[in-house]
Design a protein that fits this description.
Two copies of one chain form a homodimer.
Chain A: H1 4-14, H2 33-48, E1 52-55, E2 61-64, E3 69-75, H3 88-104, E4 109-114, H4 125-130, H5 136-141, H6 150-153, E5 170-178, H7 183-187, E6 191-197, E7 199-208, E8 212-213, H8 225-240, E9 249-251, E10 255-258, E11 264-265, E12 268-277, H9 280-301, E13 304-307, E14 311-313, E15 316-317, H10 320-333, E16 338-343, H11 348-352, E17 358-363, H12 379-397
Parallel strand pairs in A: 3-4, 3-5, 5-17, 6-16
Antiparallel strand pairs in A: 1-2, 2-4, 6-15, 6-17, 7-12, 7-13, 7-14, 8-11, 9-12, 10-12
Chain lengths: ~400, ~400
């Protein structure tokens, strides 16, 4: 049996690595001192639990329980300003389940903390390399915002690395995570069993017009790249209406104007266009609207248009057997206070689904807050999540 | 009489200071080596012309012809990537007029090159300090984009400084400049006599919403600061229609989103709102629309709204007598191929108008281009401008 007190104690210990000093927040970006320290501590806890520790070249830390084991985990790196739960919840739950399984002789459970899920070098790079979604060479060449190459940064874990970790030894992967959205908190439900992880499309769009003097260039002669962006934004809002569902989201989160000065008509606007949905066909229809609309705006306003490479991650359906075990567990632990729901966020499970069956469960995020020091979840809900996982693991042995 | 060949020769010599090596472009920002070198050369040419050189603490370089003289000039500093004409045209024209007046015993003409018109530390700081629009102490505390204080940078001209220059010795100020816009080039006219310099308003606006995860936050729960900016932009475009004239301009040239990441709903948008018109009442009506619209958008979208301090420069009407002399000169030199027009750009003449009557004339900018290496004007138009100035000076003696 899992031990909720030990689980919570380990959890609070983990947040001491990189504690922000603001609420329960942590600053533990991938390969930083706090992250490496946390991984060393995790490895020692795994060893104490009787697990065989292996660390692959990316710095993904595994606590292995043998062939045919279920893998449970997530990631222990954080955003530059992160919460104590994002990733850490799944890692400590995995540790506790693996430890309990060893103690009770239950079905073997291995655990894992993936590296750089928060994407200092892109997105979920640790599990992406492990799953073969990106080659190590290519990942090593990626640079963070400060220009540091991943290949250099991962040297910080060199002494821990044991070599490649064979995915064939695992029967499946379960990841527990905070919801990072408001749905469970709003409805008062305690558990979300994930049906699928939404697909994501993300690309840079550039409008290039004519940089000009903001005093002497009449409005009708301007080719203002910011105005092109504004027109594009208004037009897609309108055109998406017939295509999207209430679960669909799209975001212009990054905008860079050139030269970005108050007295100069912007000659260039580079911006990010990101959209997410659980339906691959809908993602495709949205892409068509985006490309068509941008082309029409560019034509109408004398702009040169270009698109950057499109990041595409397909929606991932959760494995029916693993998911069924989680649903049964949820009904036992929180009768009528759980729901099925898609994951709007990307997770390591997306990458791992290339290798084995995967499933996920969510616990509520208070006020839907994540990627911030204020991120939090009631401890009773954290423990409820652990119990659902435990029940599912017991059921899967049968 | 002025000498067009000598005028053009000096002009090409000036562009050798900080020559960009791209077309006729120059890189001669205020107080840089190229700028100081150019000012030393200008001072030597003034001395050779029999003028008394005085340099005030800001580094404004005067070539003085005595009490009651007309002051002619502009600025010789450039944008970080500037053209050879912006400012330099008025400076070399002033030098040639002052030199010719000395040679022929005509009415005395003094000349000037103001410092930092291009606003490494704001906008027209050299003439602003001379005219008392900003105190030297306050100007000295201003820092450029690299964090360098003006008070430190102006030490580069220390050995040239002679002391304050008394504005009471001048009967008026005339500034020749390129248009920096497309009107004259489009119509094929050769001279623009400026009626007024438009007023300018400029302020930062901030919408603060809620930073959130771009995957897990449903559209209807978002408080997206970029979307607030887009709504504001669309709304003012609509509301300005009943207020503006074809000469009115407004620009959102600077946008800064926070945290400016493709996977995060922007929590904050800071942007510049700038508007210009020759009518002070219209500027005021536009300000009301801007403030009201921003408040309505903030209310409707759950945003916190704040405004930065508003930069305000009033419209300046040109002096009727000086302007009349330029109009007569224009009709002599380019019959029926000149026009009266407002200046959409700010100039040193705006500051100098606090001290004495001012007037301006424009020559065409090819394709309306300025603040770029490609800035250019046909030499026959440069000479036409010089001749109009010359005719005006002769007329003003009578």
């Amino acid at each position: 049996m899992t031990d909720p007190d030990r689980f919570l104690a380990d959890f609070h210990k983990l947040r001491s690595f990189g504690a922000a000093g603001v609420g329960k927040g942590v600053v533990r970006p991938a390969y930083g001192d706090a992250d490496v320290g946390a991984r060393q501590w995790l490895a020692s806890r795994m060893t104490e639990a009787g697990l065989r520790v292996e660390v692959d070249p990316m710095g993904n830390v595994f606590g292995l329980a043998g062939a045919g084991s279920l893998l449970v985990g997530s990631h222990s790196d954080s955003q530059p300003e992160g919460g104590w739960l994002d990733g850490a919840l799944g890692v400590i739950a995995g540790l506790e389940l693996a430890r309990a399984a060893k103690e009770t002789g239950g079905p073997p459970v291995s655990c894992v903390s993936f590296q750089d899920e928060e994407g200092r070098w892109g997105v979920t790079t640790g599990s992406a390399v492990w799953a073969g979604n990106i080659e190590q060479d290519k990942a090593d060449a990626l640079t963070d915002h400060a220009g540091i190459a991943l290949g250099d940064a991962r040297q910080a874990m060199d002494t821990m690395v044991t070599g490649p970790v064979d995915p064939a030894q695992f029967g499946g992967f379960i990841e527990m995570h905070i919801e990072q959205g408001p749905h469970l908190d709003t409805t008062g439900e305690r558990i979300g069993v994930v049906t699928d992880i939404v697909g994501i499309r993300d690309m840079k769009v550039t409008f290039e017009g004519q940089q000009n003097h903001a005093g002497t260039t009449p409005m009708h002669l301007r080719r203002d790249a910011f105005q092109a962006l504004a027109a594009f934004n208004a037009s897609i809002e309108e055109r998406f209406r017939n295509v999207v569902t209430p679960r669909t989201v799209w975001t212009i989160g990054h905008v860079s104007l050139h030269p970005n000065a108050s007295s100069i008509v912007p000659g260039r606007a580079v911006f990010s266009m990101q959209w997410r949905d659980a339906d691959g066909d809908r993602l495709k229809r949205m892409e068509e609207i985006i490309r068509d609309t941008a082309a029409e705006v560019a034509d109408a306003r004398g702009m040169t248009l270009s698109f950057g490479p499109m990041l595409g991650l397909e929606p991932v359906e959760m494995d029916a057997r693993l998911r069924g075990a989680l649903e049964t567990g949820a009904e036992e632990v929180a009768p009528a206070r759980w729901r099925r729901m898609p994951s709007g966020a990307l997770h390591d499970a997306t990458n791992v689904s290339r290798l084995m069956p995967v499933a996920m469960l969510f616990v509520p995020s208070i006020d839907g807050i994540s990627h911030a020091f204020a991120e939090d979840t009631r401890e009773e809900d954290l423990v409820a999540g652990l119990k659902v996982l435990d029940a599912a693991v017991q059921r899967l042995r049968r």
